[in-house]
Amino acid sequence: MTFIRILGSSPSFFPLLPKQLILLQNALFGMGNPLLDICAVVDKDFLDKYGLKPNDQILAEEKHKEMFEEIVKKFKVEYHAGGATQNSVKVAQWMIQEPHKVATFFGCIGKDKFGKILKEKAEEAHVDAHYYEQSEEPTGTCAACITGDNRSLVANLAAANCYKKEKHLDLEENWKLVEKAEVYYIAGFFLTVSLESILKVAKHASENNKIFCLNLSAPFICEFFKEALMKVMPYVDILFGNETEAAAFAQERGFETEDIEEIAKKAQSLPKENKKRQRIVVFTQGKEGTVMTKGVETFPVLEINQSEIVDTTGAGDAFVGGFLSQLVQDKTFEQCIRAGHYSANVIIRHAGCTFPEKPDFH
Q1: What is the pLDDT of residues 15-55, one digit of tens each?
Q2: Among candidates 327, 317, 321, 231, which has minimal Cα distance to 280?
Q3: Range of the domain at 108
Q4: Is residue 292 part of a domain?
Q5: 52, part of any domain
Q6: pLDDT for 70-123, tens place per residue?
Q7: What are the catalytic residues (predicted)?
């Protein structure tokens, strides 16, 4: 089935036409580090063997290289399409439901068994994933080693680090997918991989008055990749982050304040290329309210009983996914925040960035 938007029209002109028919495939574009999440309940011996803490997030070192194969052989595993940006576009697609493939995703994987599984998982999530496949490095993986209520995450970026603009983004058939999009989202982690790819997409969005969104992603991005971050910042229409990332950003920019609303205002007022859109800054604070600069408002998160929280990993990605699902449908920013809070609330009740078959969001 194809979906069309009639130029110069709006959904209100078509009272009998379902809203999703107006929503185009490939309207949302994400680019980032694709990882195959490998989740398993493991024992203490497995953690000890690889020197893992029960509750931690680390990048794989040489001593962890064998563990990804071993976890598959020794334990019952579940696979999920993961990585920050891919999680967000996956959640956005889940919130939208129909049509399928509203969300496009670009990233680099290996020509291997894990790459094959990742492609299947992206397809199951109805995301239109177009991976750059290469043979030098294996597909990136993230092992989630579960013991009781704890999760030890070990990420091996591998192929995710090998994305090449000239070998993928610049290809005509791929660039056409970029041009189809109205909303773009990239997590800050990708600044460590391909700044030139981000800039090409960001400039296209700015020049065509489309919406470009960036996530600060982690304090180390603000600290060690601040030059790359500031090259992209003039093109950013919506900036996402959490309270620790906001504090790191403020410190690196020399903002003399620790107040999250003040940091948001200062980030909003940084130089911007596309003057037709005012930058919006959205900072989440866990169970505290979410701050948004549109007159600077704080929105309370949904209440949840502590006993219902299974896993907070991926809550930030899920918030962004919910937000994007409404943004791409031209809903109000308030509605975007509501959807973000709803998605995050669902994801923290499940292990990993997983969700029930359908959302219950109105």
Answers
A1: 444 444 478 899 999 999 999 999 899 999 999 999 999 88
A2: 327
A3: 28-33+83-139+157-348
A4: yes
A5: no
A6: 999 999 998 988 999 999 999 999 999 999 999 999 999 999 999 999 999 999
A7: 317
pTM above 0.85, yes or no: yes
In a domain, 73, yes or no: no
Nearest Cα to Cα of residue 298 among 306, 287, 309, 307: 287
Question: What are the contacts of 199-204 at 24+ separation with CB within 8 A?
Answer: 199/231, 199/232, 199/235, 200/165, 200/169, 200/170, 201/29, 201/31, 201/169, 202/232, 202/235, 202/236, 203/235, 204/178, 204/179
Residue whose C-alpha is closest to residue 293's, from 252, 234, 240: 240
Sign, CA torsion 245/251/252/255: positive
CA dist list (Å): 1 to 9, 21, 100, 292: 21, 10, 10, 37
Number of domains in the chain: 1
Catalytic residue among 311, 317, 330, 360: 317
Chain center to CA of 188: 9
Burial of 200 (0-12, 13-18, 19+ CB in 10 A): middle
Residue 225 inside a domain? The answer is: yes
- Amino acid identity of residue 262, one-letter, is E
Q: Are strands 183-187 and 211-215 parallel, antiparallel or unpaired?
A: parallel
Distance of alpha carbon 327 from alpha carbon 337, whole angstroms? 10
Residue in the structure block whose two tokens are 């704080």 = 298
Half-sphere exposure of 103 (CA within 13 A, CB side): 32
User: Residue 331 sits in a domain of what CATH number?
Assistant: 3.40.1190.20
Name the residue among 75, 38, 47, 54 with its Cα closest to residue 150.
Answer: 54
d(CA 209, CA 203): 10
- Tell me the one-letter amino acid at 75: F
